[in-house]
Amino acid sequence: MADPTVESPDAQETAAELDPAAQKNKQLLDLLYRLFGQDAFTDVEEPYGFLTATTTREKIHDIIAGLQQDQELQLNFLTTMCGMHFPERKDQELGMVYMLHSLVHNVRLRLKIFFPIGDPHVPTLTELYSAANWMEREAFDFYGIIAVGHPNLIRILNVEDMDYHPMRKQYALEDGTREDKTDLFFGR
Amino acid sequence: MDNRVPEIKMTKAPDGLEGAGFFATSLEKVVGIARANSLWPLPFATSCCGIEFMATMGARYDISRFGSERPSFSPRQADLLMVMGTIAKKMAPIVKQVYEQMAEPRWVLAMGACASSGGIFDTYSVLQGIDRIIPVDVYVPGCPPRPEQVLDGLMRVQDLAKNESLRRRNSPEYQALLASYNIK
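ok -> structure tokens follow
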């Protein structure tokens, strides 16, 4: 008799087909491929049922603008966007993540772009989403990512006279002026 | 009917020369007692220490027993700046401005680990102790300190106020201290 606690691969496949979230993700991926072409997306995956794809900074603005206008799934809500820094990825050190949400169909999409740290420019989304204004300022503040076309790209959270972008990993997280943590065993 | 006479707490008279119909002491002592028993605190509360201070102000711990009946939310009418909670570097100029707006004599109490030293927030965005921007008279340790500790800290400020020379704020040492913080 077969072990009832282990699902066969066929059963898993059937379950995935019946899963409404998986079906929506498939519909969304089909839509993305149809609108923007299959070669616009790499590294497509679904961690925890959240469709994630990597694209390029040349295409990201058109993709988000196209999805905003699209009537099939209506991904017209920008949940969040933020910067990333992976120092070990050569010429792909910096990145931006965009999360879109269709409030009508409850589908979500996560898009990533990567670019070299020597050229940290991304197109602004402020003319598509007003919410992008502060989030692009945050990415500039913490990662030094410059949103080209942003109307007011200044620091948002850190002190104005800070002279570096603190979430880049070459900088220490700790405050350099702390004096009470010099103990060899209990300090830093 | 309640016949109990309310107990009126009086502060102890200072040492002096007493005789029939007169009492002589130094002005400094009288002023010190008056100041110490009517310290108006300005609560500068930014986080969980502020919650603990609310308990200190409440009926059970009752900071008004120590003459701090009236928390002053205007720095111009406050004697004691109580900084309670994490002060981010972006907040530092505001704390300093509040301190500069206070009239002399003024005292500062740093409540909790964050206000005293930065606490657990050993990070680029947090001021590592308010004594980097303003002079501090009393530090209250704890994370957050219990109300008893805050009251003890207030009593230490009272001791300072009671025993402070009237001329201290004009002394070159005090001027040098303020100058070291770049406070006029």
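The first strand of chain A starts at residue 42 and ends at 45.
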